């Protein structure tokens, strides 16, 4: 049986009418490449259905062409868009993504970082469930891998992608206030972590600017996103002055709270206005359509992937020089309030 001959760099060079070195510069992302040369080579490569040999390229470049991605809970649907965006973006540059789930475990986070390093991965995009002490040895400070951290106070000098939670919650509180709401509950998760700290800060600051007192009973902070918000909502609805509006993380916190409200005979938005903190795909089946603070994790995933690719391509200084810390970058993703049909003025009492 005859075996189909693999298309080589030489074949692409002949088809494009250029040298082998020119093809290599284009395919390896060389800087000194004209637009005309790049177009010629890519057109020839596509016509011949050229596929680079990953093993040879890795040996030549001293890289595995693999990137790690660690999330705290793969069952959390908010991570789906983030991981998909990271994988798609690094895949366009010839990298494979290795996904790992830490299950909100300190020990597991340390094991995953160690595994990424032992397997020779080129870098990793990570998130953590904990506030590691940056002044003490921790798994992140021990790792030699280039890291990009998602939405956490980083325990080591590294690039970061941060979500603008404070501004997002501020928009939600001001919008509900404009409708006449004064008793606004906030359900969020990850107490002590940056996202919750920023949401609570935005909530408090918006109340202060609007001349409203913050009732501590209306602030409900769960340990992790997987906790149901049903029990907290039951407790709030039993208050002498229950909330007329809810801002909630779009996880089981939100679904549990909505279920509890329904069981108590509260209708959305007639009796309870609701603003979710979520991404659009997770809200498609909601009835009525929920107003939400857009949690754009797809954009965050692309930004995280690009930060890591830039680091690997040497566009930023990766190693400290003269005792100075590495030059780290931070990208902030804006959060936007999207108004739909789950909010209305509070019912007359």
Automatic annotation (TrEMBL):
It comes from Caldimonas brevitalea. InterPro entries: HTH_LacI (IPR000843), LacI/GalR-like_sensor (IPR046335), Lambda_DNA-bd_dom_sf (IPR010982), Peripla_BP_I (IPR028082). This is LacI family transcriptional regulator. One of its GO terms (molecular function) is transcription cis-regulatory region binding. SMART domains: HTH_LACI. Residues 7-61 form the HTH lacI-type domain. Keywords: DNA-binding, Transcription, Transcription regulation.
């Amino acid at each position: 049986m005859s075996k189909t001959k693999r298309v080589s760099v030489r074949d692409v060079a002949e088809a494009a009418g250029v040298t082998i070195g020119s093809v290599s510069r284009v395919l390896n992302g060389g800087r000194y490449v004209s637009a005309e040369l790049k177009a010629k080579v890519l057109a020839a490569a596509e016509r011949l259905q050229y596929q680079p040999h990953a093993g040879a390229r890795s040996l030549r470049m001293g890289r595995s062409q693999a990137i790690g991605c660690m999330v705290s809970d793969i069952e959390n649907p908010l991570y789906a868009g983030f991981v998909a965006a990271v994988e798609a973006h690094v895949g366009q540059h010839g990298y494979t993504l290795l996904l790992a789930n830490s299950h909100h475990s300190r020990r597991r986070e340390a094991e995953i970082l160690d595994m990424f390093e032992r397997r020779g991965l080129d870098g990793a995009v990570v998130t953590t469930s904990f506030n590691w002490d940056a002044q003490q040895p921790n798994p992140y400070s021990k790792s030699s891998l280039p890291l990009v951290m998602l939405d956490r106070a980083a325990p080591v000098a590294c690039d970061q992608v941060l979500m603008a939670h404070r501004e997002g919650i501020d928009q939600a509180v001001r919008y509900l206030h404009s409708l006449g709401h004064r008793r606004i509950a906030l359900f969020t998760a990850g107490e002590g972590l940056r996202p919750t700290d920023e949401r609570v800060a935005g909530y408090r600051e918006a109340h202060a600017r609007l001349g409203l007192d913050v009732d501590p009973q209306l602030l409900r902070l769960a340990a992790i996103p997987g906790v149901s918000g049903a029990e907290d909502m039951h407790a709030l609805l039993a208050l002498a002055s229950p909330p007329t509006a809810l801002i909630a993380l779009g996880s089981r916190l939100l679904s549990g709270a909505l279920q509890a409200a329904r069981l108590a005979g509260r209708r959305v938005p007639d009796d309870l206005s609701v603003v979710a903190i979520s991404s659009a795909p997770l809200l498609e089946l909601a009835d009525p359509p929920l107003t939400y603070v857009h949690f754009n994790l797809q954009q965050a995933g692309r930004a995280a992937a690009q930060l890591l690719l830039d680091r690997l391509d040497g566009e930023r200084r990766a190693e400290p020089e003269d005792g100075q810390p590495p030059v780290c970058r931070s990208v902030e993703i804006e959060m936007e309030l999207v108004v739909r049909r789950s909010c209305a003025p509070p019912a007359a009492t």
